[in-house]
Amino acid sequence: MSRYAEVMVLARDAEEVMEPLTRPDENREWHQCFTRVEDRVFAGRSGGSHECYAWVIQFIRHNWHGLLGHLESLPWPDPHSVQVLVRDEEDDCFGLWMIYDGKLIEVPLPRTRREPFSASVTGVLSRTDRRFGEPD
Q: What is the H or E stretch that residue 16 is in?
């Protein structure tokens, strides 16, 4: 099945935790690798610091089952800073997951609704404030 999903992970002081996810690993249920987004991208300069707070990945197949559970199980140095943004192919916008009581939980966003969809790992996140006839 050819569909895509984009995932961003934002987390403070997580370079060590995320580094293994930037390399291939045949033992993971999902096989793509995260790309580190260096802070120089935001500063508009050529040299960045050693700190990184953002990682991105795009899945081009329906093969990212287990990703959210894997992220949930990592030993985050600051779990309260972890934010996982997911936008599957059919979603109107990114969904937000955060760690609460040790679990990665989707945070309800105003004016959105998530519905089951068999071709998606997370279902479909739709905006409820779109008027009929407005462009997608």
A: helix 15-18
